[in-house]
Each structure stands twice: as C-alpha cells, then as structure tokens.
Amino acid sequence: MKYLMAVTGGLLLLFVIGHMLGNLQIFAGREAINRYGHLLQSSGELLWVVRLGLLAVVALHVWSAIKLSLENKAARPVAYAQYQPVGSTYASRTMLMSGLIVFAFIVFHLLHYTVRAQAVNLTGQDFAAFKEALPNGESRHDVYKMMIVGFRSVWVSAFYVLGVGLLCLHLSHGASSMFQSLGWKNDAYRPWLDRLARLLALAIFLGYISIPVAILLGYGKDV
Amino acid sequence: MNLTLKVWRQKDGQTPGRFETYEAKNVLEDMSFLEMLDVVNEELIERGQEPIAFDSDCREGICGMCSLVINGVPHGGHKGTATCQLHMRHFKDGQTITIEPWRAKAFPLLKDLIVNRSAFDRIIQAGGFVSVNTGGAPDGNALPVPKEAADRSMDAAACIGCGACVAACKNASAMLFVAAKVSHLNLLPQGHPEKDRRALAMVRQMDQEGFGACTVTGSCEAVCPKEISLSFIAKLNRDYGLAALKGK
C-alpha cells in the first residue's frame, strides 16, 4: 500500500514538473505557448492515453491515501488529551488535508482550463471561443489569451496560488518520503534527499505562481 | 519544588477513565520522574487511597518497561532519555504536568498508566530470532562480521522495545520498532539465512496487531530513548520489498 502511494506520488511529481515547464513557455510569447498547446491537443489518441493514465494514477493515489488514513485513525481509538508533536514537520502531519484540498483545486483547474466551463472562470467570457488565426487560413486555440484573461481574475489567481502552495507543502514532505517508503534511503543521503525535496517544492511553487503574479502585474497587456 | 499532576486514572480496560489532580509537594530536583511518583503514591497509600499504577523495572534506561506520556510527549521529550532517567530538575516549581498512558489500539490499557505491550512480543515471536542447531559451541570469530555491519546492527539492537515510537506516532505505527528488530538480525551473517522470511513475517504480524502505517513524520525517532534512526525504516521497506519480489 505504501509502495503504491510512493510510486503513484512519484509519477504525479514528474507530471507536475513537466506541466510547469510546459506552462512557463507563456513567457516565450503567444507563438510558443499556442504551438505547445496545439501539439498536445493534436496528439489525438496519445493525449487520451496520457489523460486516462494520469486519472488512474490520481485515483490510486487518493484511494490508497484514504484507506491508509482510515487504518491509521483506527490504530488510536482513544486520543491524547494533550499531544505535542515533536520531530515532525507541519507538512508531514497534514498530508491528507493538503492532498484533499489540492484534489479539489485540480477539479476546478480542469473545469477552468481543460473543459473551459464558462461558469467557473468568473470573467463572463467563453475560453473555448478564443482562436488565433494562422497565416495559412486555419486557426488554433489561443492558449495565451486564455491564460492571461483567466488569471486576470484575482479570485482565480488567489485560489491558484493557494492550490499550488498546498501542493508544494505536500511535495516538500512527499518528494523525499517516497524514497523512504520504497527503501531507497540511508543515513548517508537522507539529509540531502530531505533538503532536495524542500528545494524542489520551493522551485515548483515559484515556477507556477510566476505566471499569475506576472499577469496580475501587467504581463500580456496586449491581449 | 511543588507540582500539580493531572494523572489518567482507569480501573481496567472496560471501565471508562478520567483525569485526577494530585499535588506533589517537596519534590527534590535530583529525583527521577518515577521517584516523584513513588512519593505521591506513598502519600496516597497513607491516606488509604489507591496508588497510581505505572510500569517500571530497571530504572536505569535499559529494560524498556517505563512509559508515560508526559505533557504530550512520550518519555517527557528529553533526547535519548527514558522516563526513569528523566530528572525533576527539568521541571519548574508550580508547573502542572499531564501524565497519560501510551494510546494505541494494539496496546490495550490494563490499569491507570499501564498498557499491555504483548503485541511487541508476538511480533518478535513471528521472526525476531535466529535458528541455531544445537551441538558443540562454534569457534569464536570463525564467522567474520564486517565492522560496519556490526556497528549498524548494534545501533538497531539498542532498541529496548518500550513502545514510545508507537505512542508518539500520529498513526500509532510500530514501524521503528519492527525496523530495529528486523535490521539488527538482518545486518549480521548469523541472521542472513532467514532474512526474507523474517521481514515478511514480522511485518505481517505488525499489521495483524492493528498498528498504523508509517507516514515518515519522524516523531518516533525524536522520542526514542535509544535514538534509533528513521533510516532503519527505509531498510525495512527495502528488505520487505525484496523479499516480496522473490515471492516468499
């Protein structure tokens, strides 16, 4: 069970890193991000293989988390009247809560930018209708405009920062903890893995929030 | 110094328990925590009241009998110190101290602050041994043991089985105990032949006893009176995983 938790967590971490690197292309301008979006959208069956794969991984991760948490809760039927946590980090004690809130955020995030449900984007505009005309007469989805219009909503950006912040809190513990669960840790590289996990979580946080922050500060005024 | 104690009192496993408040007067700072409780108990006996039941044996930090969650921390929160070695100089005059038993489903409460830790014995019985043929004693040093392996094995063998790791863990997980007991034998050539069977059997027994799972918070390591390293849990996960892959 813990092995499943670690392996699915590791796969999701790789996705989170890849997704961030892809999104950061917004800073390379409209052409770069729209071409990237078009590349993903036009990969057809492959896109759905990846999407369903990710969905399965998320489902396994959440299912094992809930099952383990219930067992863990049952292991202490009478709670302490006074309990002072020692030696543990805040992140490590709140993995279930941060995970569940991040899950809610992911659902919103998919409705917002993948399904492009107009009701949740709080701008009154239809993201699916954003098209960029190409010189050869065809058009492709204008991801650049969608991101900029989307993040101009302060509420959307605030929820995004909260979601990513909790995700990174989750990762600051999870990214090194999965090595422990798989048995790939010893006293020699344990301190380095723990530090690396925190550094990676911080890098991911800064990478993701740079987008809404830049947009709220005026990036992409041309749209 | 004078202290106020809030102590968990419970007649037996079936009767609901509650906190009782006692005054500990004229406590000397050189007393150990258990000696302080002995003095309180003598006063209780003099007044014809039931003394507070708590576990203790060697009182020199090597037997693993003493327990007690003191102010929310098992063994009182002094690094590498069991309750019997905790001295009253660490407390302040007039302080209120809350004393609770270990709380875990796998450690059923017997009376007041005493819990039944037989679950640990059953885990040891499942695999915490080496099988040795009887006969003439083997020559000393006939079996070479690498120094590093001997050192790490002894680090793990320092575990006294007190159960503070379970008491401190938010999941009441016994992983640190099982990791120490599995590692101490698996690291040595004498324990090697039964390495896989041991890891699988002891983990299975641990799960059956109703302990929780490890979420790597590290609180067990922080309260362990013998400072067993959290890295032994990684080793246990590795030994268990390799054994499971071999299909044993």
Write the layout of secondary structure elements.
The complex is a heterodimer of chains A (223) and B (248).
Chain A: H1 2-23, H2 30-41, H3 45-74, H4 90-93, H5 95-114, E1 131-133, E2 139-141, H6 143-152, H7 154-182, H8 190-216
Antiparallel strand pairs in A: 1-2
Chain B: E1 3-9, E2 18-24, H1 33-46, E3 69-70, E4 73-74, E5 96-100, E6 109-111, E7 114-115, H2 118-127, H3 147-157, H4 164-168, H5 175-186, H6 195-208, H7 219-223, H8 231-245
Parallel strand pairs in B: 1-5
Antiparallel strand pairs in B: 1-2, 3-4, 3-5, 6-7
Q: Which descriptors apply to this entry?
A:
heterodimer, A: 223 residues, mainly alpha, 3 helical TM bundles of succinate and fumarate reductases, two-stranded antiparallel sheet, 69% helix, B: 248 residues, alpha+beta, Ubiquitin-like (UB roll), Fumarate Reductase Iron-sulfur Protein, Chain B, domain 2, 2 domains, 5-stranded mixed beta sheet, 35% helix
What's a quick, concise take on this entry?
With 223 residues, chain A is an all-alpha fold. Chain A has helices spanning 2-23, 30-41, 45-74, 90-93, 95-114, 143-152, 154-182, 190-216, and strands spanning 131-133, 139-141.
CATH architect. name of the largest domain in chain B: Orthogonal Bundle
In CATH terms, what is the architecture of chain A?
Up-down Bundle
Rg measurement of chain B, Å: 20 Å
In terms of quaternary structure, what is this? heterodimer
Strand content of chain B: 5-15%
Q: What best-fitting shape of chain A do the alpha-carbon axes yield? A: elongated
The chain-level structural class of chain A is mainly alpha
Classified by CATH, the class of chain A is Mainly Alpha
The chain pair forming the largest interface, with residue counts per chain, is:
A-B, 38 and 44 residues
Average pLDDT of chain A works out at 92
Can you describe this structure?
The complex is a heterodimer of chains A (223) and B (248). By secondary structure, chain A is mainly α. Chain A has one domain (2-216): 3 helical TM bundles of succinate and fumarate reductases. Chain A contains eight helices and two strands; from the N terminus they run αααααββααα. Chain A has a two-stranded antiparallel ribbon. In chain A, helix 1 (2-23) crosses helix 3 and helix 1 (2-23) packs across helix 7 (154-182). The longest helix of chain A has 30 residues, at 45-74. Chain A is elongated. Chain A starts with a helix and ends in a 7-residue tail after the last helix. Chain B has 248 residues and is of the alpha+beta class. Chain B has two domains: 3-110, Ubiquitin-like (UB roll) (Roll), CATH 3.10.20; 118-245, Fumarate Reductase Iron-sulfur Protein, Chain B, domain 2 (Orthogonal Bundle), CATH 1.10.1060.10. In chain B, strands 2-1-5-3-4 form a five-stranded mixed sheet. A two-stranded antiparallel ribbon of chain B has the order 6-7. In chain B, helix 2 runs parallel beside helix 5 (175-186) and helix 5 (175-186) packs across helix 8. The longest helix of chain B is centred in the last third of the chain and has 15 residues, at 231-245.
